[in-house]
Amino acid sequence: MLPDYKSDKERCIFFLKTYSCVDESGRRKYEDMLVDISNRKRESLEIDLADLEEFCLTIEGYENFPEIVQSNARRYASIFAEAADDIMPRRIFGISDEDDSFDVLMRQREQIGVEINASKNVSPELPDVLRRRFRVYFKPGTKIAVRTVRSIRAADIGHLVTFTGVCTRVGDVKPLLEVACLTCDGCGFEIYQEVIGDNFNPINRCPSGACSLRAPTGELFLETRASKFIKFQEVKVQERSEDVPVGHIPRSLTVQVKGGLTRTMRPGDVVDITGIFLPKPSTGFKARQTGLVADTFIEAMAVKHQKAGYSDMLMSADNMTNLWHHHQQLDMYGKLAQSIAPEIYGHADVKKALLLLLCGGVTRELRDGIRIRGDIHVCLMGDPGVAKSQLLKHITTLAPRSVYTTGRGSSGVGLTASIQRDTVTGEMILEGGALVLADHGICCIDEFDKMEDSDRTAIHEVMEQQTVSIAKAGITTTLNARTAVLAAANPAYGRYNIAASPQENINLPAALLSRFDLMWLILDVAGSESDVALAQHVLHVHREGKPPGLGFEPIAASQLRAYVAHARTFSPHVPVELSNYIASAYAEIRQDEIDAGEKAMGYTTARTLLSILRLSEALARLRWADQVSEGDVNEALRLIKMSKISLEDTAGDDTSKFDPITAIYMAIRDWADAQPTSEVRYDQAVALVISKGYTVETLRACLEEYASLDVWVL
Q1: Pick from 228, 236, 96: nearest CA to 167
Q2: 533-591 pLDDT, tens per residue?
Q3: Distance CA 138, CA 158 (A)
Q4: What is the pTM of this model?
Q5: Helix residue ranges per DSSP H, 309-382
Q6: What is the distance between the alpha carbons of residues 311 and 37, in angstroms, rounded to a whole number?
Q7: DSSP states of 171-191 as a string?
Q8: What's the CA gap between 127 and 662, in Å, rounded?
């Protein structure tokens, strides 16, 4: 049975005129859209197939109409456009409304047509596409399943399909010729030719009566000013790694984006794309090579981002109420950290560091153009089987924009940028690597120690300057890579060797280590109590499919993402009264390293001072505060201390022989000798103890014990 497009057009008109929203307003959704298009307030007519399905269920004879539209989407897009042209309301002019250049040009063309008709000459027909100021897009309905790139087959050609993928390459936006205007140089006659597809054959003979009466007819040339162009962009979309079967390589599809959908995707975005699956036959010399085999592409109709960026999240009143509920809870900082990968046992301080990585510090731009990064870099180094890769995978799913890669499977070019040839223009273009794709996001690099030294040096510039400088194939430019790096690595010997020095175990250059704000060493230390607790936790996760109770309901990933998004809107600063405190704490860290000599566990530089500031700003952001407090600085110092404690605990030096109470006493005594003073205030002692990695309860026990020995007076 042949389709009756004339009656289908009447169905489209009936739908556009009579469809009413289900809500209480009862407004005519598509009539309002047409009014906005007529009044130059919008440039797209978005037909929601869910609305069409709902509408057709209520009318007899329309039941199969949505399936017919989906199976021949390109033809019905033009039918809906023609139907909208027929019922388009007249424009309502306001006081400040004026005709634009397109209106003036159309009026001139219509006036020329009237004059030519009066002289009984051939009148140039204006195509409907030339008059049209909108494009028709289909939004997916409830019956369209989200598919993978691999599942789209030849049977889907011409159908409307929805699939999920990762944008790997986004081309430039270029003008695409939609209606060509050809002008005769002999008589000045204008001919309009609609362009369908990528190529067209221009008319070579002038059809006007003036040219047909003389022997040498005038030549037709393309009039660019009178032609119609639309925005065009080509995007390469690759299937997600979790959708690739074992032993296969990821497949990709070319997506053509037109009109208002351009510039909606960036490299690295995970998107659901709804579009028409179409063939693209080869032309010219390439057709002789490929024969009857045609390439395929998707003409995009709708784009939906799976994870909105922090800046794109719109907070509703209900969302803000939930966020305030979380914000006002006791120990909000600890609960947010424990909500990160709750199925992984322990690692409380590591999860706090990852929470600060998600939140980040404040990026500052100075007046002279110098940029001080706010992104926090963290390196997790430890024995096998301590859930480093699981933490990285969880952060990848939690962050709105993230890229996961491994050290052995990444090259320097794959991390920064490579040179490719543009399939449309044939020019040499840059294709961003993992660090560029993770711009304004997080780049997780697993097996960091397995990378070649030549490839690892490509990260140095990204981690500090946050740019990628390229000078190859005649292209000299600088790409932005404003990303936070989360790396996981094993020690040099596979497991941490206590007999060797920390420098031999870590086996990373000092220039790279100094760029990490926090360097964690996670050791698999045997202990009967901790091993039993870990085993019970793992068994509960495998048995119940969820982690054991934490004493509170873990915050969902979407809520945690929204909380961090709101926290990132704050730009806290360090008050003047904390400057001396931070400076003295930094000087003390440097002095401790000098005193340790060859036994020094870390590598403290001026970047460590910036790390303290970044961590303090991230903690202030979590409190939704505009100013850094002394507690934020103490917690930042504690995390830095704890990251180095994990190294010091393996050294077996004399400091580890002291119990916590003795260590606190020695720290307070050394601090009082260095001032010099014989009085220490309680708040100073608390700040000192927390920066050393001890708790307030241990400080109180120390004060009581040494007061009973008459060592000091409280």
Answers
A1: 236
A2: 888 888 988 888 888 877 788 888 888 888 888 888 899 999 998 888 899 888 888 88
A3: 14
A4: 0.72
A5: 317-327, 332-338, 348-359
A6: 29
A7: ---EEEEEEEEEEETTT--EE
A8: 90
